[in-house]
Write a structure and sequence with these properties.
It contains 17 helices and 32 strands. With 751 residues, it is of the alpha/beta class. The radius of gyration is 28 Å and the shape is elongated. Residues 1-26 have low confidence and may be disordered.
């Protein structure tokens, strides 16, 4: 055993684990390599000198002492080719005869000195950060760790270099030929204000769909299938937000428990579509299959937004595996602490990419542009975006990352959504991101959940959230659509579980129910979990209608989660990140249940209503001021007495809130320059457990109102259609939303 003193010896004299019997395969002498070019980075198939076909390899590895590209044949035999050209810290070379489909990786040599952050180890085969396709599974045996994972003295294990060859145990990059110009594609280019986002998991959405052929279930091709598209089109959503589809790896602690990272927030290759979601194989076919999926969605009028994880990688901390960046230049790619053995972790996943460094920023922006220009996507949702906005330590809205995005001619034109927080100090940044950015608004989620479980002390917070969150976003030219409104997301309870469970039930995750949040803001309606009590079940269905109706009537961009419109349940699991099974998949058999089918119909009708009425899709914040002599304002709030709310009313406990949206005062003009005029609406939200009266406001607000939506009704196939004179005291059922349209006299639109 090597002593701690020996382990702290100067670099080059440190103990190393011996090679295991047969683990290292003999390298085959390589073919000739020509100088090639330092750009573009990655492996690019092209014609070289004299028209000779081959592949140019280029890898940024500033601190390395040597780089070899390693080619693998079908039997796993390795050919190592030194890259001897070095230009601006990029090692490069053109290898004649290397064609698309070739599997490859890199070996990078340099100092082993973990105390200064240097972790080069040529025994480890490294995945190209610019690989466009990946073949093989990450299984994380001891050989793929740069240090001796099972060293007896664990407190210094990360300082002992492991000499075993990792090549037989790690996936390889694949050379891909890409000459697609997208000339046959038509992007929907849906304006932000008109967008309705539908968050889904490629595998989970398609895995159990009976209309998708079995070989295509769980794949990109499955999502492109007409049966999948039909549901999206019928709902009326304008964009799908796909949970991570960058190639990702599974964490060791999950593999040891027989589980896997289902959600995919553990990226390792930022240019490669996750190979396990491909029906067409893993040697390059996944790239074309992903593109065909994007084309099919575009043809259906649906944009594609990717949930991307650029804040950390699957290499974890100092005790994590060496798969790519850690072995290329650990000190350059990752944020390290003052003790450079340790990683700065603002993500809770062991490491944080050092986005301040130019080469890391280049990796991220090159990846983003690639997915837009060559893979056809329309936008991105950035996981833990506050970590990307950190300068050296603090979150900085003038950070290099945000500055580069703002001036990039490709990226500034696509949809950009921030998850505006990380776990570091000062990481909660809701409302702070600059123009161009939309944000997941978790204050909306909290307020709506609390209102419908009667946990709000007053209705001030609810008023802000329903009307676009001007307290958060009305600055710097931002608009109401900066707020991505959501009640549920992939992380947490499904909507059905939100009204069925008050406690998380994550036992299947194998962590003794310690994982997942305890702050669910949920209400089980009187029974924990599934029940045969029809009264409880009816109340739950009504609460689902209330929550979805509130979401789709609110100003901002609504985001639905796949399956919430079908009554999907995860059995109370609020952290199903490792459940690649029926817990995590969408159960399409629910669509045959009349009770859940009516919920789907309500969602589709509300989205259609939203698309028809610009007053529900405002492009500017409400002023709350009278625009005409008759005193009609663009937004007004009413108590159950039919009187406008006073300052005192906003601070008083209340279960009932009336919101009037005027269609006569919509700012802006249409494409032809004409004034935009729409119907006006009155929404009455009543969270109380008993029915209440609500007096319909009279002139100048309205003379008559037509009932459009009543969430107390189980059957939502057709609108109620009843007309009520102003001044009528309506009976609002317990826990219900009523939406009423103002009935105007003929000719009222004539100016």
């Amino acid at each position: 055993m090597t002593s701690a003193a020996e382990q702290r010896a100067p670099a080059g004299q440190r103990a190393a684990a011996p090679s295991t019997d047969g683990a290292r395969r003999a390298a085959v002498p390589g073919p000739a390599v020509w100088p090639g070019a330092p750009t573009p980075l990655g492996a690019r198939f092209r014609a070289g000198p004299d028209g000779v076909a081959g592949t140019n390899f280029a890898l940024w590895a500033a601190g390395a002492e040597a780089v070899r590209v390693c080619l693998f044949d079908a039997d796993g035999r390795e050919t190592r080719i030194p890259l001897t050209e070095l230009t601006h810290e990029i090692w490069h070379g053109f290898v004649p005869g290397v064609l698309p489909g070739q599997r490859y990786g890199y070996r990078v040599d340099g100092r082993w000195d973990p105390w200064t952050g240097a972790r080069w180890n040529p025994a480890k085969l490294l995945l190209d950060p610019y690989a466009r396709a990946v073949d093989g599974e990450f299984t994380l045996p001891p050989e793929v760790y740069g240090h001796v994972r099972d060293w007896p003295e664990q407190q210094v294990a990360d300082t002992v270099r492991d000499e075993r060859d990792s090549a037989p145990y790690v996936p390889k990059g694949v050379v891909v030929h890409d000459d697609d110009d997208w000339s046959d594609d038509r992007r929907p280019k849906t304006p932000w204000a008109d967008s309705v986002i539908y968050e889904l998991h490629v595998r989970g959405f398609t895995k159990l769909h009976p209309g998708i052929p079995e070989p295509l279930r769980g794949t990109y091709a499955g999502l492109a299938h007409p049966a999948a598209l039909e549901h999206l089109v019928r709902l009326g959503v304008t964009a799908v937000e796909l949970l991570p589809v960058h190639q990702f790896a599974h964490e060791d602690h999950l593999l040891r428990r027989g589980l896997a990272n289902y959600w995919g927030y553990n990226s390792i290759a930022y240019f490669a579509p996750h190979a396990a979601y491909a029906a067409s194989g893993t040697t390059g076919g996944q790239v074309g299959e992903f593109k065909q999926m994007v084309r099919a969605l575009h043809a259906a009028g649906i944009e594609v937004i990717l949930d991307v994880v650029y804040n950390h990688t699957a290499e974890a901390g100092e005790l994590g595996p060496t798969l790519s960046l850690k072995g290329i230049d650990n000190r350059a790619y990752y944020r390290l602490q003052d003790d450079a053995r340790r990683y700065a972790d603002y993500t809770g996943c062991g490491n944080t990419l050092h986005v301040v460094r130019p080469q890391v920023l280049r990796l991220i922006t090159d990846s983003l542009r690639y997915w837009v220009t060559e893979m056809g996507v329309d936008g991105f949702r950035f996981d833990l975006a506050a970590a990307l906005a950190r300068s050296m330590h603090d979150v900085d809205m003038l950070s290099p990352f945000l500055a580069v995005i703002a001036q990039d001619p490709v990226l500034r034109r696509v949809k950009l959504i921030a998850e505006p927080w990380d776990i570091g100090s000062g990481g909660y940044q809701v409302g702070a991101f600059p123009p161009l950015w939309a944000e997941w608004n978790d204050r909306y989620r909290g307020a709506v959940r609390d209102f419908w479980r009667q946990a709000l002390p007053d209705v001030r917070e609810m008023g802000y959230r329903l009307s676009g969150s001007s307290d958060l976003y009305a600055w710097g030219g931002r608009r109401p659509y900066a707020s991505v409104n959501f009640v549920t997301a992939h992380d947490g309870f499904t909507l059905r579980d939100l009204v069925s469970y008050e406690r998380k039930h994550n036992e299947a995750n194998g962590e003794d129910n310690r994982d997942g949040t305890d702050d669910n803001r949920s209400w089980n309606c009187g029974a924990e979990g599934e029940t045969d009590d029809e009264g409880v079940r009816a109340l739950r269905r009504r609460q689902l209608r209330n929550l979805l109706t509130t979401l789709l009537l609110s100003t901002g961009v609504p985001m639905l989660v796949a399956g919430d419109e079908l009554g999907r349940t995860q059995g109370g699991n609020n952290n199903a990140y490792c459940q690649d099974n029926a817990i995590g998949w969408l159960d399409w058999s629910l669509s045959a249940d009349p009770g859940w089918r009516s919920l789907t119909e309500l969602v589709a009708r509300l989205i259609a209503l939203r698309h028809r009425h610009p007053v529900l899709r405002r492009r500017a914040f409400f002023s709350g001021r009278a625009q005409t002599a008759d005193g009609l304002r663009d937004l007004a709030w009413f108590t159950a007495r039919g009187a406008e709310m006073t300052e005192e009313d906003w601070y008083a406990p209340a279960a009932t809130l009336g919101m009037y949206l005027s269609g006569q005062d919509i700012p802006g003009r249409d494409e032809r320059g004409a004034r935009v005029v729409d119907d006006s609406f009155l929404a009455v939200l009543h969270a109380g457990g008993e029915a209440t009266g609500f007096v319909l406001p009279g002139p100048p607000w309205a003379e008559r109102y037509e009932l459009v939506v009543d969430t107390s009704r189980e059957d939502q196939a057709a609108p109620p259609g009843t007309v009520h004179p102003a001044g009528t005291e309506l009976t609002v059922p317990s826990r219900a939303v009523l939406l009423l349209r103002v009935v105007r006299d003929p000719g009222a639109d004539q100016a």
